[in-house]
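The material for today's practical consists of a large collection of protein records. Backbone structure tokens are a discrete shorthand for how the chain folds in space. An example says more than a description, so a record of this kind follows:
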Amino acid sequence: MILTQNIIANVVIWIVQIVSVVGLLPQIFFNYKVKSTKGLSNAYILIYLYGCIVNLFYVFCLNLPLAYKVIAPLPPLLVLVLAFQCVFYNKRKVKSRSIKLYCVNFFIIFLLFSSISLAVDFPYKIGHLAGWASVAIWTIYQLPQVFKIHSKKSAKGFSFALVSITGFQNLLELMAALALGVPLQTVFIALRGIVLFAIFCFQFWIYRKKSNQVLVYEKNSKLIA
């Protein structure tokens, strides 16, 4: 019975990790379709990138299940695609945004290389430190996006598919983490994701009418022009 539960939990973990990658694709494709990232917060993207890098140390130092090790390197690459889109589709602000992105990337590279030796020598300590750092980062990384939607009173440009898939991922991860007994940090991260999912759903609901009005106005403006 316990063996069966572990097998199911491991299968769920694989699903969760794959979903974590798939969840980023709707936003990437949406940005490509509209040729804009106006609905995204730059801080959201950059903090997301920090979280992905720190998560690599957490996963490998604490020797988490194979699914984490295989999938963990993929989200940073997709978030870098989002960062590139932010620069490419906002050419008027490319100079200032490029400086920010370069600074963040250099910092992340420095952090990565300066921590590798410590991670090799003290994997358990670095792993738990990275785990709690991940909790902190994943707790705040979506807040800039929440504040941006609130300030604009519109969720236009932010993919609801990304929100939905991420919420589903966190729910599955919470159940699997409890079943497998993975470090406590993962449980906190999953719980945080569920709370933010509820907040985003509320924002999409209350600002839906506003977003639709803006869309109709823009279409009418194009017809008149």
Notes: The CA atoms of residues 128 and 170 lie 20 Å apart. The chain has eleven helices and no strands. Confidence is low (pLDDT under 50) at residues 214-225. The two ends are 68 Å apart (CA to CA).
